[in-house]
TrEMBL record:
Keywords: Signal. Residues 53-103 form the YtkA-like domain. This is YtkA-like domain-containing protein. InterPro entries: YtkA-like_dom (IPR032693). Residues 1-27 form the signal peptide. Pfam families: YtkA.
Length: 121
């Protein structure tokens, strides 16, 4: 009986730790008009991005700039998953600070201000 309790507590602690280290939800959701961007993280390093746009959209590209430092990340071309849903994976933020995320929807830029305040996990 006591062994079962300890096993249950260990399993619960393991699940809690996994949730903290590998969250399954998006950390940040940004919306401007018909464009919604969901970021798995707002830290430096690689992240996953989901972009919701009008169903007629054929191309979505993302890149970030850091106006205060003159930095710009290479563009990441998002992959179309379903009409109106695109996904991208890559590094958008190379250091902490104030960034501007640009999402180009069929060539039209939509910008979002983002504060990156933590480094890699």
């Amino acid at each position: 009986m006591i062994r079962s309790i300890w096993l249950g507590l260990a399993a619960a602690a393991g699940l809690a730790l996994a949730f903290l280290l590998f969250p399954s939800t998006y950390a940040e959701e940004l919306t401007s008009g018909e464009v919604t961007v969901r970021l798995t993280d707002t830290r430096t390093g690689g992240i996953d991005v989901s972009v919701r746009v009008p169903a007629r959209t054929s191309e979505v590209t993302l890149f970030a700039t850091m106006p205060g430092m003159g930095h710009m990340t290479p563009a990441i071309i998002a992959e179309r998953k379903t009409p109106g849903v695109f996904r991208a994976t890559g590094e958008l933020f190379s250091m902490t600070g104030e960034w501007v995320l640009t999402v180009e929807v069929d060539g039209e830029p939509v910008t979002f201000d983002i504060t990156v305040d933590q480094g890699d996990r």
